[in-house]
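LAB NOTEBOOK - FOLDING QUEUE
OPERATOR: T.R.
BATCH SIZE: 2
PURPOSE: Compare the predicted structure-token outputs for two unrelated chains run back to back under identical settings.
PRIORITY: normal
REVIEWER: second-year student, initials M.K.

ITEM 1
FIELD SEQUENCE / FIELD STRUCTURE:
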Amino acid sequence: MMTPVPRTARHRADPDAAVPPCADCIADSAGGLTFDVTETGEPGAALLVLRHRESHEAVSLPLTPTGDGRLRAALPSGVALPEGRWDAYVQVAGGEPRRLAPGVDDLRSLVARVPSGSLGHVAVRIPYATRHGNLSVRSWLRAPHAEAVELYRAERGLGVRGRVYGVPLAPDAYAEVCHRDAAGPPIRVEVAVEQAEFGFTVAYGALRPGVWDLWLRPAGEGGPRVRIARLLDAIADKRLFLIHPRVPVKTLYGPVEAGPSYTRDNDLSVTVTAAG
């Protein structure tokens, strides 16, 4: 997937405003990223700095000349990048870091990616343009991870097919459907298991209005509780791009409209709203 990102336009009243340095990003199938940054024109060693938006933890990567007027930094898959949003900067000779603008992203290797899961976790890094026109990287580090591979309309509600990483699926695995705001036990759903793949159906008729989060218990009641998400593609925030239609349903709580939705973190949920 080649994703050209529009540059932030200069304000007409300030034609001499400095253009921020720009970075093209290339993703590899192992989860690594390569950044190609426009030359800053400043003397001295340069670093690409990724700064976690909440903890302010920083990861610094050396930028080296490529011979075509650009600088390159590599973020290998083996370098730990804790989950969250990381803002990208360029820093020259120990000076003040400057925000990077997004360029052209080559994320084709992320589409339909199937990690081995041999390390016990799944690491995903997706570069994206912020609403202010800056470059950031969304990182996920899930151990274990339950990937929602396919969603489909089942006879009684939402059908989910997925794959689990980092933990074996036991015969007594099951899913939980949990109301995000209301107290009470989760709804337990039977899961069909085939090696590392699972499938289940969320019956809309049992759901009251609200948002219901989907979890997998891959090892049964005594094992880990894993949030089901869709991470293995090139979309950093699916809320605006993967919009599923809602269907009218008659429930114990009256007529509703129900359908799958994603959170800001690309976790899978079901949204139920009262009809009318």
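ITEM 2
FIELD SEQUENCE / FIELD STRUCTURE:
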Amino acid sequence: MFAIGKREFLKLFKGIKSIIIILILVATSYYSAKFSNLLLSLEEFSAEDSDKIEYAGLLALLLFLGQLFVMGLSHDAMNRETHDRTIRFLVTRTSRLSILLGKFSGIVLFWLVCVTASFLIIFFMTGTMDPLSFFQTMSLLIYQIALTILLSTVIPKPAFTMFLSVVLGLAFPIVSLWLAFTSNVYVSWLKYLTPFYYLEEDYMFLIILPLAAVMVVISHLVFKRREC
């Protein structure tokens, strides 16, 4: 599992897409910190909000484009192994659960490094740290990673998940926000399945983690029954 996770982690740092996304995160962090004082000068924020405003830009970026970023890099994390037949080699050396968890942990570690670096940039520029925003951001990303792993496990063709990564990456945050605020009783219950609803209150983000765990379990059940 650790070898697979390490390989997945290092692989994510290679390629032009990874470099572009990392640069976007760095630029967002830099300008969020740079213009935070300008926003605070508007005197429309409470003392509690002033501690979070420096990180608002980064959180908003990952809120609206995080799913697109995650799926853009990892849409084929599972089905690529099956498509290229490399899964046959892997299952002779380790269990399918270890493969799945290795992939998942490698992707999580990649985003943990990226988010930590982004938060450190803001911290060094502003001198303030917001641990709550950090954990909210990571819980959101863990959900997005779990969803990506699930789709990559269920859908066998990498070409289709690549197309789906664009469509779902753009549509998911819009639909999720609509569900969070809609009064339509027929669909409003779906908001409890999305992470956006649980980011409204400070510590409700912890509920996102069990949702991600459920998707990982479903991925394992599907992957366990799939032929190599």
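REVIEWER COMMENT (ITEM 2): The chain has eleven helices and no strands.
FOLLOW-UP: none requested
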